[in-house]
Amino acid sequence: MGALDAIFTSDSDSFVFGAQCVIRSASSLENAKLNLHHDELAIYNSHVIENDESVMLTGGGLLLIALAVGGDYSAGLEGCGASTVHALAKSGFGDSLLNAVQTLDSDRFETFRQKWIQDIKQELTSNAHGHLSSRQPKLAANIPADFPERSTIDLYVHPVTSFSTSSNPPDISLWKRREPQIHRIATFCDSHLGWQDHSELLKAFHGNLWEGFFLQLLYNPELKFDPVEAIVHTSSLEVQVLKAIKQERRAHRNFHLRAWNRITFETGNFVKEVKKAFPDVAMNIPTTRTIWAPACIFAEPLAGKQIKSKKRKSQHTEEKNTSCSSLLLREPHPQKKRRSQLMPE
């Protein structure tokens, strides 16, 4: 449908259900395989999976892998590995199956399925398309006569969603970027997660959420920057930046990004949002937070500057309240230029 830009999940079946872009945090296995630091992300795009010569998996091919190797709704075929199914997918068996389930009624699909099974068995014993590493006559002999069941395929091809079960499906035109509502998050944690010690809740927010809230603020297209006060702000929230120094993260040389900013910002306004929910919460946490941010996200005019006073003026801009197009998404300094993507596609 194209309603979602990306999905952050470790579920390997996401593309079978129609995801166009999947973002995964690096597991220890992927760290070794992709040379990722634990803070980095792996980004997978369906068009790359389909067109890369080393992969070449269409939606039908991915469906075949889920059915034959095993997934949420299928136990898979005994003795069938991913490389074997990949070869069958390259031979077109996944695409023909997907087309049949989308266009044929039950009786015609059953006729198709029986011939399709015989064609797969023939391919496994002959390797006529040449994609298999070796012939698989034993696997061919063990494929159940009822594989795959139409009901199982339908669970993948026609998953139940809010759009398929409701007479009033969601209006995706109303889906807009919104800033996190910190006081409502705090209330939710108190009501549903048992975080009723609000001082401990505030400590948890300081250690785990303030960094994300600040970065989310930077990504907001409505963000403004006041270079005199060294403040970044939107219509509902502002944050004082105390220090931003561009430097390389020498302790993590396996990062694909080498140009970073070490940023210190005040957290008082975040705490004020929590106090909207819990006015009596004790202030027992530091009033600043220091984080790393890629230089391509948080660049000049603050990068490389230590802001010691709110009244210190910047020499890099003439307007007091400028759009953050000058602050965000700039190339690093030529001597520090590195790839500006977390992961190549």
Topology:
Elements (H helix, E strand, L loop, with lengths): L6 E2 L12 E5 L2 H7 L6 E5 H6 L7 H11 L12 H9 L2 H11 L2 H21 L10 H6 L7 H8 L4 H4 L16 H11 L5 H11 L1 H10 L4 E3 L4 E3 L4 E11 L10 E8 L1 H10 L10 E7 L10 E2 L15 E2 L22
Parallel strand pairs: 1-2
Antiparallel strand pairs: 2-3, 4-5, 4-10, 5-6, 6-7, 6-9, 7-8
Helix pairs in contact: 3-4, 3-5, 5-6, 10-13
Question: Main beta sheet, described?
Answer: 7 strands, antiparallel
Separation of termini? 21 Å
Label the structural class. Answer: alpha+beta
Rg estimate, integer Å: 26 Å
Into which percentage range does the β-strand content fall? 5-15%
Low-confidence stretches: 303-345
Order of helices and strands: EEHEHHHHHHHHHHHEEEEHEEE
**Strand count:** 10
Mean pLDDT: 80
- Can you count the helices? 13
C-alpha geometry: elongated
- Helix percent band: 25-40%
Features:
345 residues, 13 helices, alpha+beta, 10 strands, disordered C terminus, three-stranded mixed β-sheet, seven-stranded antiparallel β-sheet
Task: Outline the structure in words.
With 345 residues, the protein is an alpha+beta fold. Helix content is 36%, strand content 14%. The chain is built from 13 helices and ten strands. The strands form two sheets. Strands 4, 5, 6, 7, 8, 9 and 10 form a seven-stranded antiparallel β-sheet that branches. Strands 1-2-3 form a three-stranded mixed β-sheet. Helix 3 crosses helix 5, helix 5 packs antiparallel against helix 6 and helix 10 crosses helix 13. The two termini are 21 Å apart. The C terminus is likely disordered.
